[in-house]
Amino acid sequence: MLCISSASASETKGSQNAHCPGESYLMLVWYHRLYLYSAAALLFGVWFVLKVALKRTSFSKDVYKSVQRTEDSDTVVHVSGVKIFYGSQTGTAKGFAKELSEEVKTLNIRAEVIDIKDYDPDDRLSDECTNMSVCVFLVATYTDGTPTENAEWFCKWLEEASTDFRYGKTYLKGLRYAVFGLGNSVYVGHYNTVGKNVDKWLWMLSGMRILTRGEGDCNVAKSRNGSVQADFLAWKVKFLTRLQALAKGEKKRCSGNCKSGGSCKTNRKEQEEDEVTALHNNSSEEDLMESSSDEEESGLQDENKSGSVVDMEDLGNIMNSVKRAKSKEEAGDGLMVKLSKVNGVKKIEDEAERREMITPALRQALTKQGYKLIGSHSGVKLCRWTKSMLRGRGGCYKHTFYGIESHRCMETTPSLACANKCVFCWRHHTNPVGTEWRWKMDPAEKILDEAIEKHQTMIRQFRGVPGVKLERYEEGLAVKHCALSLVGEPIMYPEINTFIRLLHTHHISSFLVTNAQFPEEIRSLVPVTQLYVSVDASTKDSLKKIDRPLFKDFWPRFLDSLRALGEKRQRTVYRLTLVKAWNVEEMQAYSELIALGQPDFIEVKGVTYCGESSASTLTMANVPWHQEVVTFVQQLADMLPQYEIACEHEHSNCLLIAHTKFRVDGEWWTWIDYERFQELVQAQEESGGQQGFSALDYMAKTPSWALFGANEQGFDPAETRFQRRHKTKDISGC
């Protein structure tokens, strides 16, 4: 370099004589450019190394400070809170949501209960993927497998989003969720449909299940834990356990598929048992792909969501077990069948193993409504007209139409369960539902004895009450009539014939009401004083809309029940309940149904509004005025050549159309000779059924005040009319 420098200096001196100063400077820079490049590179390297070193030092300090703050204040949060969404029609899911919220708060985790109708999933649901929250969905299944009214929009949005490419399959990636569905397995094909769909749609959008889907069954006979409340309790315990693990930051549990290629035998065995039970309860192979055990669900995303949660060889064994269970259940040996973790199938041979119809929650609800419950499936309640006639303030429409003594009438039922969920049910659907008897059964003697005892106890409470007539009080203690119309479907009770015979043995008349879904039971029924069939609609569509029956073949059953009624020789009645804007325009169809069953009488009554109910959309606007009922009856009677309007009870908004065979010499004989009926029943029993009788054998003359068109409009002149003022109307009564 010294040599080069000397040479450069010599050249520079030599060239200074030949060039100007500016050109000499440029030439100097050019000849020394190597030094300049080296210096620039050196400076840049030093700057870069210093910057990286300073950045690492700063990052280390920040991490240290963050960790220090975390250790000091415990701010590492794995679960920021739990949001509990509910879709409820009758309030059960809402109650569960509040209950779960309180339990979560005891774990020092924030909980929020949200009505799903007030939540906009399009704007807010994706936020739940990043805020470390856990979303719980408690959703009930409503009519025909549809969502409840407050969950309709959410379910519609979720279904569309799960198949909309604009959202993408990873739209809810990071969302941690759990689903508990509420339903009734009696509704075959629709059981917990909404819960299953919500679970499936969330999973399709890459949501992560933290717990297997829970299913609450209102059908006590098939509920895994005995009731929907017990089902929720069992699921809640699992959820809270899982939530605690998440809050501690624990990793997912073993999925049963180890990296080594092995499997956790215990988990696989439990999984198989759960899937067999799920298949038996839901009768759907689809459930295997939609929901699985906790272990499988936590491992689904690790397997790229292949959708397979059970090995094919295991699935074959599961399906074979279910087929064996179904084949034995269909063998017709008259025994109930259920799955067992021991051998797959277990017969319930002992009555003690059956469950009670009335669950603790149901018992509490019915007791609050004034029911006096009997045993495990029966009840009795005091009718408002019984109270009224004890005071001499008038009797019910049965007093006007048929001559019963309302203060001596006991309203009861041997079966609280029903096969319909009518929109105008004045029990607000608190009673259980079912299509067959699958509960513990109390003997008929016990039911009748306790019913009479509890009824008399309620009558005794009126002793000394102002206005109660002493002679009426004494008569009221001796039950003379029994209205089997309190609630539910009395004809479902397996020993209904024994119960009716016991009534007649006690010289108690029998008025039995059925909802026209059990034709064979109607045919096998022993003679009753008067047999009713509820004809709430005249077409298949309107009947489904109003009665909301459980049977899939409800319409053939309905028609066959009317035919069975026509085969009876004792007094038969069609009970028509008019619901304005629902079934008052089906005149021709009604006349055809009347021709099918040929009843002795047709009761036409305006629907009674029983207050607001979340289980029904019925309002006061659906209640027809009495004059509207009269107009309907007049038009209907004009279409029936063998029927005429006989009686009226204006107070109950009810009229009676009677067959002209009960019009003798121009006078109506719609009343009942109860003593004569008891004699005829006794004679038939003693003859072993050989000596029969018909409705005409125990009829009695109808008083003039009870006839249609009379000034009294069905109010007994021997009674005192009482007008309530500024008081809530009592809407109870048969």
Automatic annotation (TrEMBL):
Region (Disordered): 255-310
Organism phylogeny: Eukaryota, Metazoa, Chordata, Craniata, Vertebrata
SUPFAM superfamilies in the cross-refs: Flavoproteins, Radical SAM enzymes
Pathway this chain belongs to: tRNA modification; wybutosine-tRNA(Phe) biosynthesis
Entry's family note: Belongs to the TYW1 family.
Gene Ontology BP terms: wybutosine biosynthetic process
Acidic residues bias spans: 284-300
Residue ranges of every copy of the Radical SAM core domain listed in the record: 402-646
Segments passing through the bilayer: 34-54
Domain of life where this protein originates: Eukaryota
Described function: Probable component of the wybutosine biosynthesis pathway. Wybutosine is a hyper modified guanosine with a tricyclic base found at the 3'-position adjacent to the anticodon of eukaryotic phenylalanine tRNA. Catalyzes the condensation of N-methylguanine with 2 carbon atoms from pyruvate to form the tricyclic 4-demethylwyosine, an intermediate in wybutosine biosynthesis.
Listed name of the protein: S-adenosyl-L-methionine-dependent tRNA 4-demethylwyosine synthase TYW1
Entry keyword annotation includes Nucleotide-binding: yes
Cofactor: [4Fe-4S] cluster
Keywords linked to the UniProt accession: 4Fe-4S, Iron, Iron-sulfur, Lyase, Membrane, Metal-binding, Nucleotide-binding, S-adenosyl-L-methionine, Transmembrane, Transmembrane helix, tRNA processing
Reaction it catalyzes: N(1)-methylguanosine(37) in tRNA(Phe) + pyruvate + S-adenosyl-L-methionine = 4-demethylwyosine(37) in tRNA(Phe) + 5'-deoxyadenosine + L-methionine + CO2 + H2O
